[in-house]
Amino acid sequence: MGCGLRIFDYTPVYEEQLGFVTGASHRLAAGSAALPLAAFVAEPLVLLNKSFATRQQIDAYCASHGIAAKVAVEVNAIGALVEIVRQGTLGTVLPNPISAAYTDLHAVALLPPMPSRYVVYAWRKGAYRTAASKALVDVLTDLVRDLTSGA
Predict the structure, then answer these.
(1) Is the pTM of this model over 0.85?
(2) Which structural domains are found in the chain, ordered by start?
(3) Which of 6, 48, 103, 125 could form an SS bridge with 52, CB 3.0 to 4.6 Å?
(4) Rounded CA gap, 94 and 89, in Å?
(5) For residues 59 and 50, is the Cβ–Cβ distance under 8 A?
(6) pLDDT (tens digit per residue) in 64-121
(7) Nearest-5° angle of CA 93, CA 110, CA 81?
């Protein structure tokens, strides 16, 4: 975690991977081959605007590889992004759990893959944690484990 977050304690709930996602009508939807950077950079994308952490991670990934994403549409709502991708021929980058939740969205592996990120439950360092807040973390962790293990 970044240095500005030293005032917090946290418990990781789960790890998620960002990936390239298309709708069913996209030409890459049926393929099983991973998408290299040269092909990714040529794909027109619909992305969240730069105020979103997901977009900042996408931009950092691109910068670390010396490329720039080809942003065709920029939106400020995940629902709009998903609908544009589902109905059209633009791709996007989403956390894998979101793309897996829609049968008409197709994840395409990127080479190299985008870094994973953690979803955490955070609280102010030294703050009292109620039994309910501790139980919530346990329930969330168990739920995510069950969902990701196919149970």
Answers:
(1) no
(2) 15-118 (3.40.190.290)
(3) 48
(4) 16
(5) yes
(6) 999 999 999 999 999 999 999 999 899 999 998 889 899 999 999 999 999 899 989 9
(7) 10
